[in-house]
Specification:
With 294 residues, the chain is of the alpha/beta class. The chain contains nine helices and eight strands. A four-stranded mixed beta sheet has the order 1-4-8-7. The protein has a two-stranded antiparallel ribbon with strand order 2-3. Helix 2 packs across helix 4. The longest helix has 30 residues.
Length: 294
């Protein structure tokens, strides 16, 4: 993929220097901790704890929201970044800029305004409006704050564990998460979330994920001027590697269709290719057809 020297998004947040730590899982976060201190040491203990917290806040050591939040403290510290990781970070900013251009234009074509999402690059764990995210989850989109989160170490896993190296495979992953942002803007993901207690909720999850693959294909359709030989094959290889059936077979040695949440390898590749061929947001309806025909 031709990306060097192109516009970089201003909506990529570098959170690699932040670290999060739980407070023992007590309900009420910092307030729960203060309650515990109060029961053991009385009002003096509470005042001392608050005083220490204020000092740490002023020094930039502790996120003050821990006192009112969900029991997660956030600290910030300098980080060392290798030239290779910095190049990955720059690449992510270019890909995000590309999605911004494509979807702003595509939304305008259908008479809508595209609200740009933010992408947060972090290490290990990250605090989000959807709770604490971790690198083990892989890249994800949080509808609560409309941000995409990625630990760049996922790209090593994509190349090594899933045998899907290449910059366009990496771009496909970002474009898929941007697809979830589009679904949020269109009200689709909220409708699916409302069905989470239904017996067929997994089927709606699959429909949502396949539509995000389709939307990634739409982005690729409008970015073909930057593609190089083999790029589409890289995306196909990644889609094939992270299908539910492929992952289940790799991890547990058998395939359990009723536990699918993202779709099979064949489905993911097929819907990406549909978006690549169409280039139109309105042609990616994965919800009206029978489930078995996806």
């Amino acid at each position: 993929m031709q990306w060097k020297g192109r516009r970089e998004s201003a909506n990529v947040e570098d959170a690699r220097g932040r670290s999060t730590a739980g407070l023992g899982g007590s309900r009420g976060g910092g307030l729960g901790l203060l309650n515990l201190i109060g029961r053991k040491f009385g009002i003096k203990g509470i005042l001392i704890a608050i005083g220490v917290g204020v000092v740490f806040w002023k020094l930039g050591i502790v996120d003050p929201s821990m006192l009112l939040g969900d029991g997660v403290a956030t600290t910030t510290q300098p980080v060392e970044v290798s030239p290779e990781e910095q190049e990955q970070f720059d690449f992510v900013k270019v890909v995000m800029a590309d999605t911004e251009d494509v979807w702003t234009s595509e939304f305008q074509r259908v008479g809508k305004n595209y609200a740009l999402p933010n992408l947060v690059v972090y290490r290990g764990q990250v605090r989000t409006a959807c709770g604490v995210g971790s690198a083990e989850m892989g890249p994800f989109y949080c509808s609560g704050d409309q941000k995409i989160y990625i630990d760049l170490s996922f790209y090593d896993e994509l190349a090594q564990t899933f045998q899907s190296p290449g910059d366009f495979a990496q771009a496909y992953v970002i474009a898929h998460e941007v697809g979830h942002h589009i679904q949020k803007l269109l009200g689709i993901s909220d409708k699916v979330a409302a069905m989470q207690n239904r017996p067929d909720s997994n089927e709606y999850s699959v429909r949502l994920e396949l539509q995000a693959d389709y939307l990634a294909g739409v982005w690729a359709h409008h970015s073909q001027q930057y593609l190089e030989e083999g790029d589409i094959e890289e995306a196909m290889r990644a889609a094939n590697a992270i299908g539910d059936d492929a992952i289940q077979k790799k991890m547990q040695g058998r395939v359990v269709p009723h536990a699918f949440t993202h779709g099979t390898s064949e489905q993911r590749m097929r819907w990406f290719k549909k978006g690549l061929k169409s280039g139109r947001i309105e042609d990616g309806d994965t919800f009206s057809m029978p489930y078995q025909q996806l």
